[in-house]
Amino acid sequence: MSAAQARPKHVxxxxxxxxxxxxxxxxxxxxxxxxxxxxxxxxxxxxxDEIRLGxxxxxxxxxxLEPWITAWTAACTGVSCEGIRGGFWNSVRIVIPSTVLxxxxxxxxxxxxxxxxxxxxxxxxxxLMLGAFIPVQVMMYPLVRILASxxxxxxxxxxxxxxxxxxxxxxxxxxxxxYLSIPQELFKAARIDGGGFWRIFAQLxxxxxxPIIIVAAIMQVxxxxxxxxxxxxxxxxxxxxxxxxxxxxxxxxxxERLYNVNMAATILTSLVPLFIYFVSGRWFVRxxxxxxxxx
Length: 295
Prior knowledge:
By secondary structure, this protein is an all-alpha fold. Helix content is 72%, strand content 0%.
């Protein structure tokens, strides 16, 4: 094969009306989602005197970090004026166990339903999937009563248990479909070699599950961090997550409404999901392509 034949051919892209329309739609959609973020960002660096001028699209004339400092350390969340840093650490304490435990339990459920298939596994899987379609609000009051009777209504363990319960259907589905894409011969070979339930799971399945674990972690961290209603109801007064405290900051009716502080607090609350998206977005796509939706 000659060098000319080996060289990749240049593909000329023609701007057809359909392609132009597609680009216009994508550009409009990007602007639709990015414009509010731009307004939030520039407003958070302005002084209140500059905000009162009314030009929300203008860049700040004098950049100030005071709204960010106030939002983190001194913004009032109800009767407390200690900023949203307390909510940040509450969210961290909620997110870590609410991510690790559901992933382990979901992987265990998916492994058992895919390879061992105990009696009644089909009914169990159907029940889990049914739970995924029941609205959270429907189960709110029964869960409140159950957790109150167990003494878990306000402690950190209560909100973690609620997140585990509501995440089980999706986590089980992800891992079950991923394990169904693994050849059964591999599992049978491990069984012939003397591997039991836990040994095969720990030494064979979990090391092969890195792509889907990344997918599950991204979904769970983002979902738990952005949660508002469950944290408001089940976290208790001492464990309110960042989203609940952000709502208290923005909706306060006392004193002057500090729009720059509100915008800074909103961006601070969304930094973790944004960071996860920019750092792990490509891993999420790879994990999905590796078998998260197969089966």
